[in-house]
Design goal:
This protein has one domain: Spore Coat Polysaccharide Biosynthesis Protein SpsA, Chain A (Alpha-Beta Complex), CATH 3.90.550. It contains 6 helices and 9 strands. The strands form 2 sheets. The chain has a 7-stranded mixed β-sheet, sandwiched between helices. Strands 6-7 form a two-stranded antiparallel ribbon. Helix 3 runs antiparallel to helix 5. The longest helix is centred in the N-terminal third of the chain and has 14 residues.
């Protein structure tokens, strides 16, 4: 599940990242876009893509809310579109992780495991560019994240991780894309 806020200036990046995943993985690609700007036609026509586009401003958001509030709203939008999958991989749509599929294919996931978190974390912050979740736990996780106030998304996710001890941590994964985060950092690994 690639999460994005598609706009005219971001669209070339998103089109490139989505097409990279279509070429370099066998996964179906669910795209959650809160900007509601059109993607390239080939993305809509690909049988492996499922797209949920909405305009966050039409849902009462001004765009001035914290990124945490907007990200949680986007996660809520994904609930219905992901039900058919056992697990969903949530990834911010600016990363190319060539080793992700092989890493997951070789990971033994027991029935007790509901979450797999990215390697990057810091003290009480669990970064959220990438996580994998059993879809039966997805709504519970989103409700839990929404129910905590006054904390950044990464802090909320860290609390969720601490409460759900049956999880795995991915090894550090190389990112080959060269797009910067909103804080201008370029993450070479997740």
């Amino acid at each position: 599940m690639l999460m994005c806020f598609n706009t005219s200036d971001r669209s070339p990046m998103y089109n490139q990242i989505i097409n990279w995943w279509l070429r370099n993985s066998t996964y179906n690609i669910v795209i959650i876009d809160s900007g509601n700007f059109p993607f390239a036609r080939d993305i809509y026509e690909n049988s492996r893509t499922r797209i949920k586009q909405f305009d966050q401003t039409e849902q009462g958001f001004s765009g001035k809310e914290s990124s945490t509030i907007l990200e949680i709203n986007s996660l809520k939008q994904a609930v219905d579109i992901i039900r058919e999958y056992e697990f969903v991989i949530k990834l911010t749509c600016k990363y190319k992780l060539p080793e992700l599929q092989n890493t997951l294919d070789s990971t033994v996931i027991t029935p007790r495991i509901d979450f797999i978190f990215q390697s990057k974390s810091h003290k009480s912050w669990q970064y959220t560019e990438l996580f994998i979740i059993r879809t039966t736990k997805f709504t519970e996780m989103v409700s839990n994240l929404a129910g905590v106030s006054g904390l950044h998304m990464e802090q909320r996710m860290d609390l969720w991780k601490q409460e759900n001890t049956h999880h795995l941590i991915l090894p550090l994964l190389r990112n080959t894309a060269t797009y910067h985060r909103g804080d201008n950092l370029l993450l070479t690994h997740l």
